[in-house]
TrEMBL record:
Name of the protein: DUF3105 domain-containing protein
Pfam family, one: DUF3105
Positions of the UniProt region annotated as Disordered: 47-69
InterPro entries: DUF3105
Source organism: Nocardioides euryhalodurans
Length: 215
């Protein structure tokens, strides 16, 4: 009996991650023939873009250093001296890089789409986010500097009331000159919108950042 129970437990341990992988793949099939603009809500689900003068370019600290970001989520600022590679596009709360690491990605021109705990508890919304992230798989093209990452209550304050998505970018004013006026850029949304994301990344491409040539 003990051997039998152990065998069942072992099978469950092996089967659970495999089931998760299969489920994720099945969830993405519905997005295969959809373009980015067609995924999720219309752009009207998002508020107007907000900007703020940015500081912290090349202001690096060691990983683990406590950095009190005043914005939820940050779009610029002091950051870790490491960053996350371009390969991974979607993260859950349990495996996401530290915020200080992701802010370094912003300095390199990434657009980060943050989702709050309301979205994290909504399987359909998460599938939509996975669908969005599946449109950025060409890692050789820096225009795919994009990541979907969670924002939790442990990270800082809440998004504006009724808003559960935040897109952020670290801009140098559109001309690619890092010596110009740098700004943090935000756009909050009530739900995921591929149309709004495409507009945001067109207006604020990776080239419009302090260090666009860094991966």
């Amino acid at each position: 009996m003990i051997v039998g129970v152990c065998a069942v437990i072992a099978l469950l341990i092996v089967a659970y991650p495999i089931y998760g992988i299969i489920s994720d793949r099945q969830a993405l099939t519905e997005f295969e023939d959809m373009n980015l603009q067609s995924i999720g809500a219309p752009a009207s689900a998002c508020q107007d873009v907000e900007t703020k003068t940015a500081t912290g370019s090349q202001d690096h600290v060691s990983p683990g250093t406590d950095i009190p970001y005043e914005d939820a989520p940050p779009a610029y600022g002091t950051h870790y001296d490491v960053w996350d590679g371009i390969e991974r596009k979607f993260y859950a709360a349990g495996d996401r890089p530290d915020v200080g690491e992701l802010v370094h990605n912003l300095e390199h021109g990434y657009t980060l789409l943050w989702y709050d705990e309301t979205i994290a508890d909504d399987d359909e919304a998460l599938d939509t986010l996975r669908g969005l992230s599946s449109k950025f798989t060409d890692d050789d093209n820096f225009r795919n500097k994009f990541k979907v990452v969670p924002w939790t209550s442990e990270d800082g304050g809440a998004f504006p009331e009724g808003q559960h998505i935040a897109m952020t970018h670290w801009s140098v004013g559109g001309d690619g000159d890092p010596s110009g006026e740098q700004t943090g850029v935000w756009q909050y949304c009530s739900e995921p919108s591929g149309a709004a994301l495409e507009d945001f990344m067109t207006e604020y491409p990776y080239t419009d950042s302090p260090e666009p040539d860094a991966i």
